[in-house]
Write a structure and sequence with these properties.
By secondary structure, this protein is α+β, with helices and mostly antiparallel strands. It contains 12 helices and 34 strands.
Length: about 675
């Protein structure tokens, strides 16, 4: 019963407690105690995990934004989801995330290091913004976020060949460089006027930072737009000395309504024009030689064109002498065969009170007398090594493209324009092309540019010396260049693909991107072979009249195919509408133009501008506003002499004298509009 255990250094232990077996009565009590202890430990552990999860959940929330490992969502003040962005380039390691003040940051994905943060900014009581940045620290890893667009209607981005309002996305497109392109020749690309900015009908806006090597893609099945930053396999390149580590950074702002959030974004992020172009350009139409004569223009035809403008009693802000006046592309001189006495011609035009603008471009063809000079002086964009001038193909041949990042190139080009002005009294210039797609895929400029569209910016800057009357068809970060911006050539057709129906969506898109002095291209379109609805080489008569009526309510009007080609009745209609433009439209446009200098607000506005809570207004693409008090509803369908019209709540008077005092939006079904009419309504 007792044991003697040999002791250690302390000697021998002889007092040993005898072993006893537990009785059957005490065993359940011990078991219950153990179970209780386990339950207590489990409860404490669960509580600790619960507290930790609450803290983590609180950590991953910032104002109305909820972050998770795969993306984030943003809610409005009412709790509804208005924005969702998914991360496609990695999964965040949430244990690496911390929050300090208004900045939530993470330093790892599940497999690599990165720099990531979301900063909350509250610039106004009605606006909540979030700065988002995901930057890779390893070269050549693209960053891609996927924005869900199913929550709302979206607007902005770029002009396109098939233009809709709101944006209509179809098919799938892997992310491609978001750069300016000539969409007449490349109809699947982004257009020549472009900004990485979008707004939605649920009062959300996103602006990609200008420093991002931005690529855009989409998937209409997933209802997503892919925002990607990358340098590999791209025309974007890092700054000299920088590693090609991609960074996707942008701001998302949420407001109370779509109009107010757009006003905030424009005031905060867009350049503003520094002056209003010449008043006469808004009041009187310009007349281009292009659609009527194409390159077959000569001195006799130009003088006859001018004489007919006077003969038929039309006003003229300026005549635009388009392509075909020089012998070779890149020569800044008149073809002596086609224009045997250019000086006398200009003297005659001036004596008849005509101002003349000339078509110019950034190309010097290889057969031009100026080509060798430009090569020798290093005025062209170069191939990637910088040793040789690059040759490019454009629609009028092969040549060099002038490097407008080079001060010497700018000086040389400006001197050529000054010479034309001093010798002939040229009033201004039409700056053709300028899109980045005419650059080589890989190229070198004197001033390194990481974004190819900066070339567009540098080219349009050349118009600033002539901005009273100048016209440009491309623009990127160019809102402060106070010239007229023109969407790419329209075909003489009815539809949405560069046709009459595309005009309003294109103008609204350009307006939302911050370009307010708009020339909506030639009345009736360009009358290109095989892209003209009509006969005798002319646009269809009905199409021409409806185009004329729509152009009356644009900031500026431009003829090329003249009304007298259709007969006296069309001449009378044209006189009627040019007079209406001068008396009704131009005064309003000029008043709004002066406001643009400080606000950047559109002159031509979407219907939702004054009807922000109406789902119907978000989808209207065939009506528009001039300011807030003139609603325009043209007929854009062949064979129609009626149309449905949406009137927002308010007090309206139609062009026929009818009064509409309505507290709710009103739909006028089959409202009669004769061929020589356009429906418009004034706020009373």
């Amino acid at each position: 019963m007792y044991q003697v255990v040999p002791g250690g250094a302390g000697g021998t232990i002889t007092d040993v407690i005898p072993k006893q077996k537990l009785s059957k009565d005490t065993r359940p009590l011990v078991g219950a105690g153990v179970i209780g202890l386990v339950l207590v430990i489990a409860a404490v552990t669960a509580w600790c995990y619960y507290i930790a999860s609450l803290r983590k959940a609180e950590l991953l929330k910032t104002e109305l934004l909820d972050l998770n490992k795969d993306g984030y969502i943003i809610r409005n003040q009412g709790g509804s989801i208005v924005f969702r962005m998914d991360f496609r380039s990695g999964t965040l390691d949430l244990d690496s995330c911390t929050k300090e003040g208004e900045i939530l940051s993470c330093v790892r994905t599940t497999d690599r290091k990165l720099i990531f943060f979301i900063e909350t900014v509250r610039p106004k009581d009605t606006v909540q913004c979030y700065r988002v940045r995901w930057e890779e620290v390893v070269p050549d890893i693209p960053v891609e976020h996927a924005m869900t667009y199913k929550f709302a209607h979206w607007y902005g981005g770029a002009v396109s060949a098939v233009q809709h309002w709101p944006i209509s996305i179809s098919g799938q497109q892997a992310p491609k460089p978001f750069v300016t392109s000539d969409i007449y020749s490349n109809r699947d690309e982004f257009g020549g006027i472009l900004e990485s900015y979008w707004i939605s009908s649920n009062a959300t806006a996103i602006k990609i930072n200008n420093s991002v090597p931005f690529h855009l893609g989409w998937n209409d099945t997933e209802k997503t737009m892919y925002f990607q930053a990358r340098y590999n396999d791209s025309s974007f390149k890092p700054n000299p000395g920088e590693m090609p580590c991609a960074e996707l950074s942008y701001r998302v702002c949420v407001g109370s309504d779509v109009t107010s959030i757009h006003k905030y974004m424009v005031r905060r992020y867009f350049n503003k024009p520094n002056k209003v172009p010449a008043e006469v350009m808004f009041r009187h139409p310009s007349w281009s030689t292009w659609a009527l004569h194409k390159t077959d223009i000569d001195q006799e035809k130009l003088l006859k064109y001018a004489a007919n403008i006077r003969k038929y009693n039309f006003n003229c802000s300026q005549i635009e002498l388009d392509d075909g006046y020089s012998r070779r592309y890149g020569d800044f001189e008149f073809d002596p065969v086609k224009f045997p006495n250019a000086s006398a011609m200009f003297h005659k035009l001036k004596s008849d009170d005509f101002m003349v603008s000339l078509w110019i471009h950034p190309f010097v063809n290889h057969d031009s007398e100026n080509f060798h000079t430009c090569v020798e002086r290093g005025l062209f964009v170069r191939e990637p090594t910088g040793r040789l001038s690059a040759l490019v193909r454009w629609w009028n041949g092969i040549g060099g493209i002038l490097d407008f990042t080079n001060p010497e190139t700018r000086d040389w080009f400006a001197s050529q324009l000054r010479s034309l002005r001093s010798r002939y009294g040229v009033s201004s210039f039409k700056f053709e092309a300028g899109e980045a797609n005419y650059l080589p895929w890989k190229f070198k400029t004197l001033e390194s540019i990481r974004d190819p569209s900066i070339f567009t910016r540098r080219y349009t800057e050349m118009a600033s010396l002539y901005n009273d009357r100048a016209e440009a068809r491309s623009g990127y970060q160019s809102q402060n260049i106070s010239c007229f911006f023109r969407p790419i050539d329209r075909d003489s057709v009815w539809g949405y693909e560069l046709g009459l129906k595309s005009v309003i969506p294109a103008v609204l898109t350009i307006s939302i991107l911050g370009y307010q002095f708009i020339l909506p291209d030639m009345i009736g379109g360009n009358a290109y072979v095989n892209r003209t609805y009509g006969n005798r080489g002319l646009p269809d008569r009905e199409l021409y009249i409806r185009w004329l009526e729509l152009s009356t309510f644009m900031p500026s009007m431009q003829f090329s195919i003249p009304p007298w080609e259709y007969g006296d009745d069309v001449v009378e209609i044209a006189r009627k509408y040019t007079a209406l433009h001068e008396s009704l439209v131009a005064p309003r446009v000029l008043e709004l133009a002066s406001e643009v200098l400080s606000t950047g607000d559109p002159i031509i506005r979407p219907v939702w501008w004054i009807a922000t809570g109406d789902e119907t207004a978000y989808k209207i693409d065939s009506q528009f506003l001039i300011g807030d008090d003139l609603m325009v509803a043209p007929v854009l369908e062949p064979g129609k002499q009626e149309r449905d019209i949406y009137l927002p709540a308010g007090h309206w008077r139609s062009y026929k004298g009818e009064r509409f005092d309505i507290k709710e939006p009103l739909h006028l079904t089959d409202y009669p509009v004769d061929l020589d009419e356009i429906a418009y309504f004034l706020w009373v």
